[in-house]
Amino acid sequence: MYSAPAKPNLVWKLSIINFMAAALASSLALSCSTLRGGSDPSKPRFPNLCAKLTNLGLAVSPHSHFRHRKTLRISATVSVSDPELRTGPDELAASILSKVIDSDRGVLLEKEQHKEVAQVAEALQNYCVSEPVKCPLIFGDWDVLYCSVPTSPGGGYRSTLGRLVFKTKEMIQVIEAPDIVKNKVSFSAFGFLDGEVSLTGKLKALDDKWVQVIFEPPELKVGALDFRYGGESEVKLQITYIDENIRLGKGSRGSLFVFRRQGKSN
């Protein structure tokens, strides 16, 4: 039978807290150094599809549309899992979720699996609304499901050594109207010491796809202790796709993020 470890003395508790603060001081959730700086973002062209978020499609001529649908019917009788059939936004969104769920936010994926996620994300960009920064769907509570650089959200404590000490329980980004962003990571250290570290920042639109967030110093809570450390941090993120369920973002240095709205199971 599992027995609870003995309570450490005050000196050891303070040592644990100092260790956690040092590991987390330089990064948190989506405010990592890998997203800072960078050259001016490019501005790819997307079709104007903002009118209906639930009925997005590619513009084709009537004849090519008929031929395309006929081909789909034939292929579907062969293999419904053929990646060539995953051409619509709903299918692509379901595909990318299936690839990142239970991956410990990307940590457990192999190199080829990361490439597959990137390919689906690139395909989904074709269905992004024309001005995602102005889309009201960005507001809400979002679970961070994936990052192409798995140690990016959370920094040191998400490294191989850090994950041995800190078990991530929850990683959330909340966007509140009109311009507030809150990032929170809750964790368990050494299997018995619960805590969380959070950031609050102000969102600023840089153009119709890119946003900048300047965060206040992070706040660390461990047990009854609650204190701030470090200084301000800044991130830039491009919104590459959004719908009622998922949101994709790309950092200024290319890191890909997948978010799922809380309360959604698929």
Classify the beta-strand content into a percent band.
25-35%
Structural class category: alpha+beta
Biggest sheet, open or closed, and with what strands and sense? 8 strands, antiparallel, barrel
Radius of gyration: 21 Å
Question: Which runs of at least 5 residues are low in confidence (pLDDT < 50)?
Answer: 1-17, 19-85
Give, in order, the helices and strands: HHHHEHEEEEEEEEE
Output the number of helix runs.
5
Main sheet: strand order:
1-2-3-4-5-8-9-10
Shape category = globular
Structure summary, number of beta strands: 10
What does this molecule look like?
This protein is an alpha+beta fold. 23% of the residues lie in helices and 29% in strands. The protein has five helices and ten strands; from the N terminus they run H-H-H-H-E-H-E-E-E-E-E-E-E-E-E. Strands 1-2-3-4-5-8-9-10 form an eight-stranded antiparallel β-barrel. Strand 6 and strand 7 form a beta hairpin. The longest helix has 15 residues, at 10-24.
